[in-house]
Structure formats: structure tokens, C-alpha cells
Design a protein that fits this description.
heterodimer, A: 113 residues, 6-stranded mixed β-sheet, 5-stranded antiparallel β-sheet, 0% helix, 58% strand, globular, B: 113 residues, mainly beta, 7-stranded mixed β-sheet, 4-stranded antiparallel β-sheet
């Protein structure tokens, strides 16, 4: 069974204090790993897709990396507006090329001014 | 704004009742996915439709059903509602059904009393 585990469950940082969020996964075959940001009461907002080990993607203060067993979301010099829940999801290989995403439970990130 | 719309935003109903949630995908997207988000289970994939046909099923209960219409909008029908069905229900859409990113709507919050 495909599994995604995110750590830590919650993280409180000071503004400007860099850190990393972890996403460990087990899938039969990885077609893609996705990072989303979710604000309270809203739908997840797409951030990144990673397809193969060694791949990296950046967007503003966020950088996502991928290995064969885990992904990291690095946040550099965060600002209060970066406060949100960050969700990791995987899309496994399956017959017919169709499948929903398997999500982790997320990391609740709070950036204090 | 992802371009995915969902109605209604909130729905309050009683146990044993039936409700219908509606989703309009982003313009041009052929694939629609339904997810349920509860506090204890996180985001869980329910079902996927592609161009009017069912493509994949996840953890969808037999009391739940969905369909995608010729204009590509989708409806999720929930019947014989139980207290445990209270959750946020999200619709997501993607261009095709392969490796494309999924874009989420704002969700429908269902409360079963």
C-alpha cells in the first residue's frame, strides 16, 4: 500500500529562520511527487511536481528536492505569509495511467514575526 | 484562484439525508477528481472521471456516487448520511489523466447533524 509520512506535524519558526520539511514515501513505482500549500478552510494550492531522484525545483523562498525515499521542502528566510499547512502527495504507477493522489497529513507551519 | 468552482460552500443536513455537491473544472480540463478531507484521515482520494467516464476509484463508500456530464462538470452524490461523513469535500481537475498537476477548488464543507 502506498504511504506518505510527513514530519514534523507542526513547526513554529521565527521570521527569517530557515528550515526544512520532510516527506517520506513508499510506493510501488513513483510517477510524481507533489507539494501543495493549504490555508485554513481553503483548497490546496499547487506548488511543485518532482519526477525523479535528484530533481530540484524552486519558487520564491521555497525549494523542493527529491530522493528515492523522501522529499524535502526547504524554506529560506520565511515570512509570516508563508504560514500554512504544507502537504506532500505521491502519484504511483498504475494500469491505465489513472489514479488519485495519496497525501500525507501535512506539516502545519507557523512563522512568527 | 485555481479556476475550479464548487457549490455550495457550506451544507448542513441531518443523518439519513442525501446531498449533491457540484464541481466545475478549469476551462479545458478533462479530468475531475473528488477528495474528502477530515481531521483524523487527512485528504483522501474518492473517485476520478475523465471526459465523462469513470477512471479510478479510491476510498469511496458505496453510499457515495459521482458522475461527469457532457459539459465536463461533475456531481458527487452522498446518501444515507452519517455523522462521520461530516468533512470538507474537494474537487480537483487536470488537463489529462496522466502526469498533469491537479488544481483544487475551494471545497464544500458538509456538516451532518
Amino acid at each position: 500500500e502506498d504511504q506518505v509520512t510527513q514530519s514534523p506535524e507542526a513547526l513554529r519558526l521565527q521570521e527569517g529562520e530557515s528550515s526544512s520539511l520532510n516527506c517520506s514515501y513508499t510506493v510501488s513505482g513513483l510517477r510524481g511527487l507533489f507539494w501543495y500549500r493549504q490555508d485554513p478552510g481553503k483548497g490546496p494550492e499547487f506548488l511543485f511536481t518532482l519526477y525523479s531522484a535528484g530533481e530540484e525545483k524552486e519558487k520564491e523562498r521555497l525549494k523542493a528536492t527529491l530522493t528515492k525515499k523522501e522529499s524535502f521542502l526547504h524554506i529560506t528566510a520565511p515570512k509570516p505569509e508563508d504560514s500554512a499547512t504544507y502537504l506532500c502527495a505521491v502519484r504511483p504507477y498504475s494500469g491505465g495511467g489513472a489514479d488519485g493522489l495519496t497525501f500525507g497529513k501535512g506539516t502545519h507551519l507557523i512563522i512568527q514575526p | 484562484d485555481s479556476g475550479v468552482t464548487q457549490t455550495p460552500k457550506h451544507l448542513i443536513t441531518a443523518t439519513g439525508q442525501r446531498v449533491t455537491l457540484r464541481c466545475s473544472p478549469r476551462s479545458g480540463d478533462l479530468s475531475v477528481y473528488w477528495y474528502q478531507q477530515s481531521l483524523d484521515q487527512g485528504l483522501q482520494f474518492l473517485i476520478q472521471y475523465y471526459n465523462g467516464e469513470e477512471r479510478a476509484k479510491g476510498n469511496i463508500l458505496e453510499r457515495f456516487s459521482a458522475q461527469q456530464f457532457p459539459d465536463l462538470h461533475s456531481e458527487l452524490n452522498l446518501s444515507s448520511l452519517e455523522l462521520g461523513d461530516s468533512a470538507l469535500y474537494f474537487c480537483a481537475s487536470s488537463l489529462q489523466d496522466s502526469d498533469n498537476e491537479q488544481f483544487f477548488g475551494p471545497g464544500t464543507r458538509l456538516t451532518v447533524l
